[in-house]
Design brief:
This protein is α/β, with parallel strands linked by helices. It has two domains: about 5-215; about 230-280, no CATH class. It is about 30% helix and about 15% strand. It has seven helices and eight strands; from the N terminus they run αβαβαβββββαβααα. The strands form two sheets. The protein has a six-stranded mixed β-sheet, with helices on both faces. A two-stranded antiparallel ribbon has the order 4-5. It is elongated, with a radius of gyration of 20 Å. The model is unreliable at about 10-30 (pLDDT under 50).
């Protein structure tokens, strides 16, 4: 799927124009999640076993569901984190999966495939269970697109959730309240999607999109907050010829209204990242 198309899908349209800040559904929490959408680094998607374990399992997972879910995540993360890289890998064993994640460049990851009631992702060499040691640097996003990803070896899914119950996902934004030994808890991840139940093959791609929409809503909140901060200091930026003056009159109409339109979206994104990462400023070249 084209990345531009994914980006547009994640931005709701207002009447007559694309207005990313109009009528979007922000997360219930008033706090800002500790996410850095301008970060560089690596987001890793690990795809495990995607064949049903048996006849009773046939509707829970499929190779097609895994492929479509991984593709949605890859394009969505690339649109939300334009300076980061995304890798999709297929580990052959738990050890290989651990090593793929245990890189300091990794800031987020998703696991896609069949799982078990102890929060393990099935690989050809056995289940890969949550392992805090693989989080060698700060992790900010986790997508658990496999059975019972809410749980862990020390906090297994209750029996009533192991049967063929209606598939459902949950967003976890308070890692300290997550299940003991689970990925969000072990790695203190501020934004996660997990399943308390098994997955349903026909819904996985849609669930992945819901997660991307959740992150996109949070990104819009971050940008709205930070553009407001820029606009409040336009006089200083303009007086000193600072790069952030590109958002101020007469160069741009972004300030003082703070309205983001298709015409100014590119310059807003560049300068938004410059505010959060001053080290990205390379001077007037390219502006």
């Amino acid at each position: 799927m084209n990345r531009l198309m994914v980006a547009l899908m994640l931005l709701p349209a207002a009447a007559g124009a694309l207005e990313p800040f109009a009528n979007f559904g922000s997360p219930k929490e008033e706090k800002f999640l500790e996410l850095d959408f301008c970060r560089r680094g690596l987001f890793v998607i690990l795809v495990g076993e995607c064949s049903p374990a048996g006849k009773a399992d046939r509707d829970a997972i499929s190779s097609k569901a895994c492929a479509e879910t991984a593709a949605m995540l890859e394009d969505g993360i690339a649109a939300l984190y334009p300076l980061a890289r995304v890798e999709t890998l297929r580990p052959e064993s738990p050890g290989e999966a651990f090593n793929m994640l245990a890189r300091t460049s990794v800031f987020g990851f998703a696991l896609v495939g069949r799982g078990d009631h102890k929060g393990g992702l099935a690989t050809p060499g056995g289940p890969f269970y949550p392992a805090g040691g693989s989080c060698t640097s700060k992790r900010e996003v986790f997508g658990g697109f496999y059975y019972h990803s809410k749980y862990s070896e020390s906090a297994a899914a209750p029996k009533e959730l192991r049967a063929r119950v209606l598939s459902r996902y949950e967003f976890v934004t308070s890692p300290d309240r997550a299940k003991e030994g689970s990925w969000p808890r072990l790695c203190q991840i501020p934004a996660s999607l997990v399943y308390p139940t098994r997955t349903f093959a026909g819904k996985m791609k849609g669930d992945a999109r819901k997660f991307m929409e959740f992150l996109a809503a949070e990104k819009r909140r971050h940008i709205a907050r930070d553009v407001k901060e820029i606009c409040a200091h336009c006089a200083e930026y303009s007086a000193h010829g600072h790069a952030l003056a590109d958002l101020c009159p007469p160069v741009s109409d972004v300030c003082p209204s703070g309205r983001i339109t298709p015409a100014n979206e590119r310059i807003v994104m560049r300068n938004y990242c410059l505010l959060t990462h001053p080290e990205y400023d390379t001077g007037p070249v390219g502006r």
